């Protein structure tokens, strides 16, 4: 039987959607254990247990004070302790880096951005900013995979149970960068950008006023994203940036507002299921990839759409 | 202590020659490798080179003995990435070129680059881009830090170096989804930078002329003591089985707002069952 180890790094009060997707995927592959780098609340641990996870590996001591190296060493040791054949991680930059380093220690291949996986562990991913579909395999005994959110179904969990906790000693990393400060960013209460089913994204055309986009996003239960022009202008957090150097999103619906559609922006959104574009310039390249385009002023179109959704009681 | 007497820094900047994203990019051939025509210096690596130049300028410039080496691994044409780096301001360059490297995945690339850096070094600082614009995996910098046992300072959105008694300390800011963190490391270290860190300069006429006199060393795998079976397809831990271009997105309906576009948008969404 395949042994799967999942590395989870979020540890709030409850499981995030992407974490439930990972647990569901792992359960379909084999026996599942979890490696948790930091502290976790009891409700979170019970949540993991409700997916049939028997073992939860935790580090002895703190691996979170150095950048990546500590967590990578911990994951490596957890993989060995669990005898895992498959290691699953999320798809954040940090998760990919942890995967990268642990893979060197384990002499294992890594595939990032996995969107589907067959019985033989052949993975599918998008390449060249979504313009290619590539299938690839890990050829080593252990496979390390980072999985894109929204790619696998999250199945219903069973009754909450606490997994057995296994502490593993991790040697301190002599050569490591130390985390000396941390500033939390304000939380919006909206869904996480890379997990959201709907994304409403604004660009330079928004002229600093994201209000109408936030209202539409809330009416649709979506997240708010942005082009680099908007994040560079300081109108919205950098973490909202979609594109080559921001997030790659594949929601059911992407509403592009006041964004011209440069290649670097497309790189982050062109695998969305349905694309709607609102731009006052009819020649804007974004219309080339839009399923529904509106040539118009965003400040007229958005409020009208939001009102209409509310009016219909949707 | 004065920086000059502390000795200059040796900085390696890793620059990759990648297919230009402005054109259609292709994966082809028996081994399903990237087609490298129409290639350029990866624009994300320009930020790493700029970070190196700014660091040197902030600490006494070339007169203080600092030296920036632009390094690439790739087919013969990849030397263009090094040449451009020399025009922008790197002091010298190195190009690892060997047929056996073709088809290397991240693990094989990081193995070859680690050996190359050890052969050319020791370096006080290794700078890279946040991702290559073709592979886009962001795996190589972390794997290099692991292989070279260097402190890893990756995705730096701001970077500063200070020196005291000949010991250098880097301080960087790293942005995560829900928080930003400050990270510190002594040199030697490996740093990858994001496109938030600076505005890369362009080569000017003086730089282009000066680059003609700068040295580029070309090396093969044998020169750096790496076996052909340790890299390329043979040395990779992953294998591409198939690659197909996605059908391009076709243009849908485009309407012009005549005062009711918001309502028509809601009709469209309702029709797509997206409400
Ligand atoms: C290395 C590198 C990495 C990059 N990474 C990214 C990335 O990750 N993500 C990203 O987005 N970009 C990225 N970029 C930048 C990218 O090249 C573009 O510059 C950027 O996407 C442009 O943003 P924009 O479309 O918002 O602005 P613009 O191109 O200025 O477009 C603004 C649009 O708004 C429209 N508009 C104006 N007013 C209105 C109105 N009232 N109603 C309707 N429409 C209106 C205009 O017609 C125009 O089309 C990167 C660039 C580089 C060099
Ligand atoms: N073949 C290469 N030659 C030089 N640098 C490279 C090469 N491959 C990767 N790098 C460096 O590693 C960074 C991240 O690449 P990647 O992990 O492929 O996304 C790039 O921005 C480069 O600085």
Automatic annotation (TrEMBL), chain A:
Gene3D superfamilies: HUPs (3.40.50.620), TPP-binding domain (3.40.50.1220). Transmembrane segments: none annotated. It holds the Pfam family ETF. One of its GO terms (biological process) is fatty acid beta-oxidation using acyl-CoA dehydrogenase. Binds 1 FAD per dimer. Keywords: FAD, Flavoprotein. Residues 4-183 form the Electron transfer flavoprotein alpha/beta-subunit N-terminal domain. Its cofactor is FAD. SMART domains: ETF. FAD binds at residues 204, 227-228, 241-245, 279. It comes from the Bacteria. InterPro entries: DHS-like_NAD/FAD-binding_dom, ETF_a/b_N, ETF_a/FixB, ETF_asu_C, Rossmann-like_a/b/a_fold. GO terms for molecular function: electron transfer activity; flavin adenine dinucleotide binding. The electron transfer flavoprotein serves as a specific electron acceptor for other dehydrogenases. It transfers the electrons to the main respiratory chain via ETF-ubiquinone oxidoreductase (ETF dehydrogenase). Heterodimer of an alpha and a beta subunit. Belongs to the ETF alpha-subunit/FixB family. PANTHER family: ELECTRON TRANSFER FLAVOPROTEIN ALPHA, ELECTRON TRANSFER FLAVOPROTEIN SUBUNIT ALPHA, MITOCHONDRIAL. This is Electron transfer flavoprotein subunit alpha/FixB family protein.
């Amino acid at each position: 039987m395949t042994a799967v180890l999942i590395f989870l790094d979020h540890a709030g009060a409850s499981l995030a959607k992407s974490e439930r997707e990972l647990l569901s995927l792992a359960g379909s592959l084999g026996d599942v254990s979890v490696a948790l780098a930091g502290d976790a609340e009891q409700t979170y641990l019970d949540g993991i247990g409700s997916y049939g996870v028997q073992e939860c590996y935790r580090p002895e001591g703190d691996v979170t004070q150095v950048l990546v190296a500590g967590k990578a060493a911990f994951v490596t040791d957890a993989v060995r302790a669990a005898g895992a054949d498959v290691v699953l991680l999320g798809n954040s930059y940090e998760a990919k880096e942890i995967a990268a380093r642990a893979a060197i220690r384990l002499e294992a291949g890594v595939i990032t951005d996995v969107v589907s996986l067959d019985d033989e562990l052949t993975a599918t991913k998008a390449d060249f900013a979504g313009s290619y579909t590539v299938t690839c395999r890990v050829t080593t005994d252990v496979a390390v995979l980072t999985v894109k959110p929204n790619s696998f179904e999250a199945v219903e969990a069973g009754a909450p149970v606490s997994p057995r906790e296994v502490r593993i000693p991790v040697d301190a990393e002599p050569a490591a960068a130390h985390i000396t400060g941390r500033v939390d960013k304000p939380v919006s209460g909206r869904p996480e950008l890379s997990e959201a089913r709907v994304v409403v994204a604004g660009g330079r055309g928004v002229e600093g006023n994201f209000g109408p986009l936030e209202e539409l996003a809330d009416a649709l239960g979506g997240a708010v994203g942005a082009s680099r022009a908007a994040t560079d202008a300081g109108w919205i957090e950098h973490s909202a940036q979609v594109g080559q150097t921001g997030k790659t999103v594949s929601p059911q619906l992407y509403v592009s507002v006041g964004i011209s559609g440069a290649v670097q922006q497309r790189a982050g959104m062109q695998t969305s299921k349905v694309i709607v574009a609102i731009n006052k310039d009819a020649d804007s390249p974004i219309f080339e990839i839009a399923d529904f385009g509106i040539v118009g002023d965003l400040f007229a179109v958005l409020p009208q759409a939001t009102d209409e959704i509310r009016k219909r009681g949707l | 202590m004065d920086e000059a007497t502390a000795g200059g820094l040796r900085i390696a900047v890793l620059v990759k020659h990648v297919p230009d994203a402005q054109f259609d990019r292709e994966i082809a051939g028996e081994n399903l490798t990237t087609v490298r025509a129409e290639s350029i210096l990866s624009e994300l690596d320009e930020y790493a080179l700029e970070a190196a130049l700014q660091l040197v300028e902030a600490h006494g410039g070339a007169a203080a003995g600092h030296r920036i080496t632009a390094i690439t691994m790739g087919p013969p044409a990849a030397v263009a990435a090094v040449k451009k780096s020399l025009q922008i301001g790197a002091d010298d360059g190195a190009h690892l070129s060997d047929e056996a490297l073709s088809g290397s995945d991240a693990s094989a690339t990081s193995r070859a680059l680690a050996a190359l850096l050890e052969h050319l070094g020791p370096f006080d600082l290794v700078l890279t881009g946040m991702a290559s614009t073709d592979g886009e995996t962001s795996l190589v910098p972390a794997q290099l830090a692991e292989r070279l046992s260097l402190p890893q300072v990756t995705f730096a959105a701001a970077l500063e170096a200070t020196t005291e008694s000949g010991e250098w300390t880097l301080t960087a800011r790293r942005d995560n989804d829900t928080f930003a963190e400050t990270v510190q490391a002594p040199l030697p270290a490996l740093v990858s930078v994001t496109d938030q860190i600076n505005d890369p300069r362009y080569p000017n006429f003086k730089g282009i002329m000066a680059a003609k006199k700068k040295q580029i060393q070309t090396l093969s795998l044998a020169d750096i003591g790496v076996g052909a079976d340790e890299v390329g397809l043979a040395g990779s831990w992953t294998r591409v089985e198939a690659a197909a271009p996605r059908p391009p997105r076709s243009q849908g309906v485009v309407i012009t707002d005549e005062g009711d576009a918001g309502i028509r948008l809601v009709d469209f969404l309702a029709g797509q069952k997206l409400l």
